[in-house]
Specification:
The chain is of the alpha/beta class. Helices cover about 40% and strands about 20% of the residues.
Length: about 325
Amino acid sequence: MPIDPVPFLTVPDRFTPEKGDCWPLALDPETGIISLLDPPGPLEMAAHYRHNAYSPHLQKAESIPDRLYLAASALLLHRRARLVAKGITDPGKARVLEIGCARGTLLEHLALHHGFSRSNMIGIEPDPASASFARERFKLTLYPSLSDLPPLSGPFQRIVLWHALEHLPELDAALEQLSRLLAPEGRLLIALPNPSGLDAAHYGPDWVAWDAPRHLWHFPSGTLERLAETYGLRRMTFKAWAPDALFNAYMSEELRCRRGKQGMHAGRKALALLKGGLFALRGMLKTEDGAGIVREFRRGKEAPGVQFSPAGDGVRPSERSSATSADRQS
């Protein structure tokens, strides 16, 4: 019998805290995963992504945080691309899928600086403006959702979800599809905010990475690994992503000020950056305490109940495992 989710925390929309709108989060007692209760429908959700300060879709900066975000993104793009390209011996033939590719800058960087072919790279991006930018500026192939991928897409040597998995409404279906799309020797890279991190504990409901209602899922330590294993995906490496600590601290401090009707003066900004540095250092010393974590998964060769096929059979691994057990008993 399913166990009802346990109320966890109520958080504001970081863009409009003055309105007093709050979103409840709940903890699944069985999986340990935190989720948004009663998320908005597709049309309402789309409106929540169109705020002019939503960072992944920024094309020009009009404030100090926006300028910092775009500058940091440009500086870190090479580092992210190196993580994706690591271990690829023939980039011209390697196939890459990025989910939540925004304006396509990572895929373009892989093409320009790492020898990947644009014809072998696909992006998933639901935001029409960002997708249009990527198609027109970089000539990339994009689709609005995973369900829109052509049937024979893949296998992919690299699948990237950089702060994207937490946005996907159908979590189980997405992980099953990613497992099927990943080549046997491929790698799945997932970057996520860490609700078990010290910055999340410090800021509580003001932690900017709750980002309700856009973030639908949050994965405390070990929860994503256990879920991924049911789909034949095994974590190989994980590391803290220090830039998330600086961004989270600055933006969370600003959100705390706004909620308390206080100004974000120079001293508060300096304090936020100091905290961010300390959170980043803590993540370097102990990954589980990091503000953001990058995990690398590969397909397990002997994962119980998982049968890999290019086309897939549309059956969840847990259901397939149960059916197999019943067959053995009959």
